[in-house]
Amino acid sequence: MKIIRTVCALLFAVAAGVFAASSAIADPVDSTVATNPCPRCGGTGVLKCTANGCKDGKRDCPGPCLKINHGVWQHMDVKGHSSDELWQKFTPPNGQWHAWTTAHLGEVIELHDGQYVDVGKCKICGGTTHVPCEICKGTAQVPCPICHGTKVVSASSSPDPTPGTPSIADIILKNGSTVSGHIVLRNDAYIVVKMANGKLNKIPLEELADSSATKK
């Protein structure tokens, strides 16, 4: 009986030790690490979406519907309509054209039996002529490429002290390619280069052939 009690005590001690170790592993990452507000997004964690064609989170419908910025719109003298209205002509092979006004934006004009007809609202955009941007999902915002939406960067990260003045004109990579621009952020893991077109290029330090690019 005494042996059984001793074994039970040992098992309990082992289990307690395992639980303590598990608890230690589950502790969150040290929150005392110094951080600064992200210099790129100003601490918001997001930037305005600049994807091609995106405006306020939407872009032109890729479908065949009538759009104000597609095709040729013109003023026409049509009885019963204002001279200010804009029309778009569709001419079939037989030359007998038909035209629709901007009141039909978002609708699809198709050729049926040799003549163009309005087949109704676009099935892609529902007649709105726009669809959500696939990059920002209609929000008009994207996560900041520097802080990845966290709003902060490590205090060890240092922004370029003179933005607008190239820190390095040509940054050479180990693969032989060259990146031109100026460094806007550097830390112990990567640098961020602002290209001539305004886009940001995040380059891990291990990809750099020129060690001078890592100097602060």
Give an overview in words.
This protein is mainly beta and 216 residues long. Among the domains are: 58-132, no CATH class; 156-216, SH3 type barrels, CATH 2.30.30. The chain is built from 1 helix and 17 strands. The protein has one helix spanning 2-25, and strands at residues 35-37, 46-48, 58-60, 74-75, 86-90, 98-101, 107-112, 115-121, 130-132, 141-143, 152-154, 158-159, 170-172, 178-180, 182-186, 190-194, 200-204. The strands form 7 sheets. The protein has a 4-stranded antiparallel sheet, with no helix packed on it. Strands 4-5-6 form a 3-stranded antiparallel sheet, with no helix packed on it. Strand 16 (190-194) and strand 17 (200-204) form a beta hairpin. It is elongated. The model is unreliable at 6-30 and 160-169 (pLDDT under 50).
Features:
single chain, 216 residues, mainly beta, SH3 type barrels, four-stranded antiparallel sheet, three-stranded antiparallel sheet, 1 helix, 11% helix
Tell me the span between the first and last alpha carbons: 70 Å
Task: Give the strand tally.
Answer: 17
Main sheet characteristics: 4 strands, antiparallel
Helix content: 10-25%
Provide the β-strand percentage band.
25-35%
Overall morphology: elongated
Task: Return Rg in Å.
Answer: 31 Å
Order of H and E elements:
HEEEEEEEEEEEEEEEEE
With strands numbered from the N-terminus, the spatial order across the biggest sheet is 12-15-16-17
* Unreliable parts: 6-30, 160-169
What structural class do the secondary elements suggest?
Answer: mainly beta
Q: Helical region count?
A: 1
The overall average pLDDT, rounded, is 78
